[in-house]
């Protein structure tokens, strides 16, 4: 089901070595079934060090990390300066409620690339190492008191292609019933 909403790519970032932040790039190339070309987290099996210690053979459901740029505005109001790529994301978006998307949503990024949303990113202690106190800003509670993780979503690459800042993002929801995002 095509949703009448869309947004834009605000920034793209990648890093070939393990580090918390990822430098901004003029473009990134998404590779089907792998992730961002040249990024340390690309691969068919999990590449996050913590998860690799548990089971390195599990499928990589975290090939591409997306964060909504609006989060940076929210944390800025609380006194934290955070920019694109600084929380380790590959794609910074504008104009899409990423956290409200259901599992299986497809995001068409630019002319060719398509990613499928797999779940939420769990914020880790490195967020407080990056900016002391920032973790409290990216983990909150909703109106019902349920814990709400705001540090982005994870996805897998269905169709590869080049993604650049300014590219349009088209949102295609899966057929119902919709499953809310959980940590992957």
Features:
three-stranded antiparallel beta sheet, globular, M1 Pyruvate Kinase, Domain 3, 184 residues, seven-stranded mixed β-barrel, 34% strand, mainly beta
Model description:
There is one protein chain. With 184 residues, this protein is mainly β. It has a single domain, classed as M1 Pyruvate Kinase, Domain 3 (Beta Barrel). 13% of the residues lie in helices and 34% in strands. It is built from 4 helices and 13 strands. The strands form 3 sheets. Strands 1-6-5-11-8-7-13 form a 7-stranded mixed barrel. The chain has a 3-stranded antiparallel sheet with strand order 4-3-12, with no helix packed on it. A hairpin with a 3-residue loop joins strand 7 and strand 8.
Put the structure in a nutshell.
With 184 residues, the protein is mainly β. The chain is 13% helix and 34% strand. The mean pLDDT is 93.
With strands numbered from the N-terminus, the spatial order across the biggest sheet is 1-6-5-11-8-7-13
CATH topology: M1 Pyruvate Kinase, Domain 3
* Tally of domains: 1
Major beta-sheet overview: 7 strands, mixed, barrel
CATH superfamily: PK beta-barrel domain-like
- Strand percent estimate: 25-35%
Helix content: 10-25%
The CATH class label is Mainly Beta
Structural class: mainly beta
Distance between the termini: 24 Å
- Gyration radius, to the nearest Å? 15 Å
Average pLDDT rating: 93
In CATH, the architecture is Beta Barrel
Please mark out the parts with pLDDT under 50 across 5 or more consecutive residues, or reply none. Answer: none
Output the number of helix runs. 4
Indicate the overall shape.
globular
């Amino acid at each position: 089901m095509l949703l009448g909403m869309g947004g834009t790519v605000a920034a793209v970032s990648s890093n070939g070595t393990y580090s918390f932040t990822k430098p901004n790039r003029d473009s990134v190339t998404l590779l089907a079934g792998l992730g961002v070309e040249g990024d340390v987290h690309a691969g068919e099996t999990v590449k996050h060090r913590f998860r690799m210690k548990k089971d390195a053979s599990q499928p990589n459901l975290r090939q591409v990390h997306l964060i909504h740029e609006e989060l940076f505005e929210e944390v800025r109001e609380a006194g934290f300066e955070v920019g694109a790529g600084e929380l380790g994301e590959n794609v910074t978006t504008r104009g899409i409620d990423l956290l409200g998307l259901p599992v299986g949503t497809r995001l068409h990024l630019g002319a060719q690339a398509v990613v499928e949303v797999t779940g939420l990113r769990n914020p880790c202690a490195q967020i407080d190492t990056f900016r002391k106190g920032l973790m409290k800003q990216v983990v909150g509670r909703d109106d019902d008191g349920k814990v709400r993780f705001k540090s982005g979503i994870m996805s897998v690459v269905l169709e590869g292609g080049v993604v650049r800042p300014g590219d349009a993002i088209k949102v295609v929801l899966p057929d119902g019933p919709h499953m809310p995002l959980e940590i992957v």
